[in-house]
């Protein structure tokens, strides 16, 4: 047949070939029509599963199944789970055989065909790159700087809303609104990490003398270093002196207990110590910023 | 405790002469031969398709039309395919989070839609994907919502528990919370003078919630046009109905509210009962309780294999003997309305429609960051600012 065709002129041979092939198609016995092949991919049996293994196939190639039948047992890190078929069909080709390990979720493990299909020459389709969910265009995705979301230049609104690069405390916010402060950033902040405090706003508005007002920090007493005499190491003579005086004290007759002369002498032991006027003043708890900072760390 | 889970009473304790409902999908008989296929014809339902409480059962003679049956078949098949596509997408980790599928319960959603009018209101819980599509949604909208894309019916921000259409009120996450809301919707309909019915659906697991009975009381007290529908698929998550409810005849739990139990696997019976219920409430007879006895093949959700509390044989048996789509297919073929090839063609059309919707939904982009702040408040009523996920994230409207 082919030799006859090649002897003819090119254009006529084409039409003859086409008509011959059409006749061939009509005359030859039709192979069974193949419906769409369904791909069976590795299912994620739990939302955290990323890969699994094939424990065993419950159906053989060419075996038919109905919807709900178990096709294969998948081994996950947690358990061995049965995978059921969704539709009726026959198992066309097993791509990942029994005992396959580390099969990623989404990888092809088998091809399924419909009943009455010709599965003699099923080809494994080439691995297609999975289409990830499309990312929106870069220009539409606005990346918000996490630190300063409030420092956007916005048009002045009818309702005055003070904005500051740092967090505004409710008392501060109220004062800003009441005092009609146009730009909260102009006020120097003396609070933790530069936040505005109520005192800052009051001082700015003129209602207070300073951010700390009339509060005066107590002066810290510097303790005077007292001269401490170094104890002299005892020599032989001093030790002997100590021993003799100790012995002498023991030899002296015990002193008779003195009877107390006055009533006050009796109860003197039980009364609280009289407050001496020369007691050192107890230092006030210092309101220094570093201790406040330590208190507030992690709180806000 | 685990041993209790496997303890089932040997035989169902049914009194000797009690009628029981049958749940086969293919027991409806043709009355006489159909002369003209373009005209409606009468069929007779099985006598055990309905059971009633304090009211009359609907008549067993139903008038059906050929094109309506074919449309119902196509819709049921489309809904089945959509749920199966959601199953596959979940297993491919494209849908995350919750996914509750209604495979096997298509006769309830499609039968409801064909029994009511577009202006009637429907509210249900989270097994809502077929209802959402039937009540005016699109398959692409539902799938995209599950995938979390902008083309979703809530712009991808809600998932299956937040899908709405003008006559469908969701898509609700809290078990049993939609029933008092449904009673409220019925109250609104009565207040506005609309001659519509409101269908508030819940499951057998939610039927024991307290607020359900509060809703019953208010509906009966004020004669609201509410139909409370219990979709009894025999398992509340993993608990069989007999282990959770002392009274498993959910249609009798309305106390003074009349009830009707329906075979939820036969779509002709379902649709006929829904028409009866709609007529009942719109004529001012007060509320009605309906119970659809149906079955779900899958688990409670995608995290549940569905075989730890029931045997695979039971599921396979229900699938092979009581499947609603197969039942309707038998009717259509037996009554000579269409051939097997034509129905297979409808199957293929359904599959192609769903596949295309899934592809379109996959192409849709994820929501923009600025959409985190929209749709929280009604436009124009927003507060000056809104706190975000972190301390520094503040949005000013």
Automatic annotation (TrEMBL), chain A:
Organism: Rhizopogon vinicolor AM-OR11-026
Family, similarity comment: Belongs to the 2-oxoacid dehydrogenase family.
Molecular function terms from GO: dihydrolipoyllysine-residue acetyltransferase activity
Any Pfam family: Biotin_lipoyl
PANTHER family: DIHYDROLIPOAMIDE ACETYL/SUCCINYL-TRANSFERASE-RELATED (PTHR23151), PYRUVATE DEHYDROGENASE COMPLEX PROTEIN X COMPONENT, MITOCHONDRIAL (PTHR23151:SF82)
Listed Low complexity bias regions: 143-157
Lipoyl-binding domain span: 37-113
Name the record gives this protein: Single hybrid motif-containing protein
Classification via PROSITE patterns: BIOTINYL_LIPOYL, LIPOYL, PSBD
Gene Ontology biological-process annotations: pyruvate decarboxylation to acetyl-CoA
GO CC annotation terms, alphabetical: pyruvate dehydrogenase complex
Domain Peripheral subunit-binding (PSBD): 167-205
Region (Disordered): 120-165
Keywords: Lipoyl, Transit peptide
Gene3D superfamilies: 2.40.50.100, E3-binding domain (4.10.320.10)
Superkingdom of the organism of origin: Eukaryota
Keyword set includes Transit peptide: yes
The keyword Transit peptide is assigned to this record: yes
TrEMBL record, chain B:
Enzyme Commission numbers on file: 1.2.4.1
Keywords: Oxidoreductase, Pyruvate, Thiamine pyrophosphate
GO biological process, one term: pyruvate decarboxylation to acetyl-CoA
Oxidoreductase found in the keyword field: yes
One Pfam family matching this protein: E1_dh
Domain Dehydrogenase E1 component: 75-368
Catalytic activity: N(6)-[(R)-lipoyl]-L-lysyl-[protein] + pyruvate + H(+) = N(6)-[(R)-S(8)-acetyldihydrolipoyl]-L-lysyl-[protein] + CO2
InterPro entries referenced in this protein's UniProt entry, alphabetically: DH_E1 (IPR001017), PDH_E1_Alpha_Subunit (IPR050642), Pyrv_DH_E1_asu_subgrp-y (IPR017597), THDP-binding (IPR029061)
Cofactor(s) demanded: thiamine diphosphate
MF GO annotations: pyruvate dehydrogenase (acetyl-transferring) activity
Entry function: The pyruvate dehydrogenase complex catalyzes the overall conversion of pyruvate to acetyl-CoA and CO(2).
Protein's name according to its UniProt entry: Pyruvate dehydrogenase E1 component subunit alpha
């Amino acid at each position: 047949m082919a030799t006859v065709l090649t002897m003819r002129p090119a254009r006529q041979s084409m039409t003859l070939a086409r008509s011959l092939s059409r006749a061939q198609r009509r005359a030859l016995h039709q192979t069974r029509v193949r419906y769409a092949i369904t791909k069976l991919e590795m299912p994620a049996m739990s939302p955290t599963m990323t890969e699994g293994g094939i424990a065993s196939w419950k159906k053989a190639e060419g075996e038919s199944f109905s919807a709900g039948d178990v096709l294969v047992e998948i081994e996950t890190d947690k358990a061995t789970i049965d995978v059921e078929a969704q539709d009726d069909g026959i198992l066309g080709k097993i791509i990942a055989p029994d005992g396959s390990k580390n099969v990623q979720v989404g990888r092809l493990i088998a091809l399924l065909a419909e009943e009455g299909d010709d599965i003699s020459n099923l080809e494994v389709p080439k691995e297609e790159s999975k289409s990830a969910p499309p990312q929106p265009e870069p220009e539409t995705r606005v990346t918000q700087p996490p630190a300063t979301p409030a420092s956007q230049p916005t048009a002045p609104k009818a309702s005055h809303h003070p904005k500051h690069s740092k967090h505004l405390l409710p008392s501060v916010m109220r004062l800003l609104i009441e005092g009609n402060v146009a730009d909260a950033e102009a006020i120097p902040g003396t609070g933790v990490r530069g936040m505005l405090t109520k005192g800052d706003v009051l001082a700015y508005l003129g209602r207070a003398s300073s951010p700390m007002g009339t509060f005066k920090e107590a002066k810290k007493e510097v303790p005077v270093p007292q001269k401490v005499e170094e104890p002299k190491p005892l020599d032989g003579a001093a030790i002997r002196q100590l021993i003799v005086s100790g012995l002498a004290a023991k030899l002296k007759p015990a002193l008779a207990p003195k009877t107390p002369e006055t009533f006050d002498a009796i109860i003197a032991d039980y009364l609280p110590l009289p407050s001496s006027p020369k007691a050192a003043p107890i230092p006030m708890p210092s309101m220094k910023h570093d201790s406040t900072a330590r208190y507030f760390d992690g709180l806000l | 405790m685990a041993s209790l889970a496997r303890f089932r009473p040997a035989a169902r304790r049914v009194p000797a002469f009690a009628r029981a409902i049958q749940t086969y999908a293919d027991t409806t008989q043709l009355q006489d031969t159909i002369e003209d296929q373009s005209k409606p014809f009468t069929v007779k339902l099985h006598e055990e398709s309905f059971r009633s409480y304090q009211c009359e059962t609907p008549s067993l003679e139903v008038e059906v039309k050929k094109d309506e049956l074919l449309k119902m078949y196509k819709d049921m098949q489309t809904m089945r395919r959509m749920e199966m596509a959601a199953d596959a997408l979940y297993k491919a980790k494209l849908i995350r989070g919750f996914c509750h599928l209604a495979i096997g319960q298509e006769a309830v959603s499609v039968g409801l839609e064909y029994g009511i009018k577009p202006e009637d209101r429907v509210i249900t819980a989270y097994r809502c994907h077929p209802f959402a599509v039937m009540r005016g949604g699109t398959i692409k909208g539902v799938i995209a919502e599950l995938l979390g894309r902008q083309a979703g019916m809530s712009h991808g921000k809600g998932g299956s528990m937040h899908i709405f259409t003008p006559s469908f009120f969701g898509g609700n996450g809290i078990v049993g919370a939609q029933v008092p809301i449904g009673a409220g919707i019925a109250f609104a309909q009565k207040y506005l003078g609309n001659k519509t019915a409101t269908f508030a659906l819940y499951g057998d697991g939610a039927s024991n919630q307290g607020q359900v009975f509060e809703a019953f009381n208010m509906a009966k007290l004020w004669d609201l046009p509410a139909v409370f529908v219990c979709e009894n698929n025999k398992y509340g998550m993993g608990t069989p109905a007999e282990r959770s409810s002392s009274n498993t005849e959910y249609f009798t739990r309305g106390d003074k509210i009349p009830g009707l139990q329906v075979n939820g696997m036969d779509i002709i019976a379902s649709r006929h009962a829904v028409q009866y219920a709609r007529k009942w409430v719109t004529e001012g007879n007060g509320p009605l309780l309906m119970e659809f006895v149906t079955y779900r093949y899958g688990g409670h959700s995608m995290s549940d294999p569905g075989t730890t509390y029931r045997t695979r044989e039971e599921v396979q048996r229900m699938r092979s003997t009581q499947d609603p789509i197969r039942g309707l297919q038998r009717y259509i073929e037996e009554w000579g309305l269409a051939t097997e090839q034509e129905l297979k063609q409808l199957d293929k059309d359904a599959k192609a429609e769903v596949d295309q919707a899934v592809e379109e939904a996959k192409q849709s982009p994820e929501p923009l960051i600025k959409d985190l702040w929209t749709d929280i408040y009604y436009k124009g009523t927003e507060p000056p600012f809104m706190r975000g996920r972190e301390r520094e994230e503040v949005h000013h409207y």
